[in-house]
Amino acid sequence: MIVAFSVTPLGVGEEVGEYVADAVRVVRESGLPNRTDAMFTSVEGEWDEVMDVVKRAVAAVEARAPRVSLVLKADVRPGVTDGLTAKVETVERHLSA
Asked: Taking every annotated instance into account, which residue ranges of this chain make up the domain Thiamine-binding protein (predicted)?
């Protein structure tokens, strides 16, 4: 499964990069395949391990912010691995055709 999620601290002002970095650090230290862009962090793995990473990423932000917003989108597709790379490669292949 691939989960794309965004954790936003609320009540801490406009500069939230350091809080978001706390969440991304949890994801990167998880050892699961992941990718971060300007809007979301995507992480790939089995249901329980991915949801555990999301929960811990939210907790890392929650430890320093009075309120946290979580946006999550999941692609639940049993048996598929390396979806983070394969999905992008498929689009790129169509673009180059």
From this structure: 3-92
Note down the domain range covering 59. 1-94
Residue with tokens 């790129």: 92
Rounded Cα distance, 4 and 11, in Å: 23
Cα–Cα separations (whole angstroms), residue 73 to 4, 18, 66, 78: 5, 23, 24, 16
Q: How many domains does the chain have?
A: 1
Q: Which pTM was predicted?
A: 0.90
Q: Any idea what the CATH number is for the domain that residue 76 is in?
A: 3.30.70.930
Task: Identify the helix (H) or strand (E) that includes residue 48.
Answer: helix 47-62
Give burial (CB, 10 Å; 0-12/13-18/19+) of 40. middle
